Amino acid sequence: MKIIAIGMNYAAHNEEMRHTRVNTDPVIFMKPDSAILKDGKPFFIPDFSEEIHYETEVVVRINRLGKNIASRFAHRYYDALTVGIDFTARDLQRKFREAGNPWELCKGFDNSAAIGTFVPVTQFADVQQLQFSLQIDGQTVQQGCTANMLFGIDEIIAT
């Protein structure tokens, strides 16, 4: 499985992270197969970072190949959704950004992409209006909605 991830896609999170630049295109990065953590396996904090952050994400399963896809046809290219957690070695990310280097080492380390069970897209009334959240020990620590994405699912697929 190839993971194509979109960074900096929520204005509120960008503000929280003090990103002031407005992106006119999605910020795309990759995660390798070895980043996938599934089947309820535990996540272990890696010893190479002192600051691991987590972000709950909507995960879209692409089910066919395509290029130069028009937004109005984008929904034909994915068939299921789930939630996931994107783990980031934030201390390394700051260092890499300051040096103008890629993010892969801080975003693509082993088990840095926890994913849930995929649900057919037909089970959702509108994928552009999905509410999602993350709870830890019964406390909601993050919540979001796909409507708040700077670049929506179909727009990203068409990119």
What does this structure look like?
This protein is of the alpha+beta class and 159 residues long. The chain has a single domain (3-158), classed as Fumarylacetoacetase-like, C-terminal domain (Fumarylacetoacetate hydrolase, domain 2, Alpha-Beta Complex). 16% of the residues lie in helices and 33% in strands. It is built from 4 helices and 9 strands. The chain has helices at residues 11-16, 90-98, 104-107, 153-158; strands spanning 3-7, 27-31, 36-37, 52-62, 78-89, 113-115, 119-120, 131-136, 139-145. The strands form 3 sheets. Strands 3, 4, 5, 6 and 7 form a 5-stranded mixed beta sheet that branches. The longest helix has 9 residues, at 90-98. It starts with a strand and ends with a helix. The mean pLDDT is 91.
Descriptive key words:
159 residues; alpha+beta; Fumarylacetoacetate hydrolase, domain 2; 5-stranded mixed sheet; two-stranded antiparallel sheet; 4 helices; 9 strands
Draw up the topology in text:
Layout: E1 3-7, H1 11-16, E2 27-31, E3 36-37, E4 52-62, E5 78-89, H2 90-98, H3 104-107, E6 113-115, E7 119-120, E8 131-136, E9 139-145, H4 153-158
Parallel strand pairs: 3-6
Antiparallel strand pairs: 1-2, 4-5, 5-6, 5-7, 8-9
Give a quick precis of the structure.
The protein has 159 residues and is an alpha+beta fold. The chain has four helices and nine strands, in the order βαββββααββββα.
